[in-house]
Amino acid sequence: RFVVVFIDDILVYSKTEEEHEEHLKIVLEVLREKKLYAKFSKCEFWLREVSFLGHVISSGGIAVDPAKVEAVQEWGTPESVTEI
């Protein structure tokens, strides 16, 4: 397993560059066979780190996106029941 699909986002991940090249070829070929096309301007290839669904994914593992954590930390303290 080397691909995650969520709605219209596709994440391809691999342990090595050689493996990644093969995985990309497979995914792009399947898309072509199914007549599904990706807009090149929205594609990013060969990233070492990527933000995906609120997480940062890299060779070091998966972590919560710091921007999401910061947004929660900046929430004000609720002062009434309706604000909770």
UniProtKB/TrEMBL annotation:
CDD domains: RT_LTR (cd01647). InterPro entries: DNA/RNA_pol_sf, Rev_trsase/Diguanyl_cyclase, RNA-dir_DNA_polymerase, RT_dom. It comes from the Eukaryota. PROSITE patterns: RT_POL (PS50878). Residues 1-57 form the Reverse transcriptase domain. This is Retrotransposon protein. The lineage of its organism: Eukaryota, Viridiplantae, Streptophyta, Embryophyta, Tracheophyta.
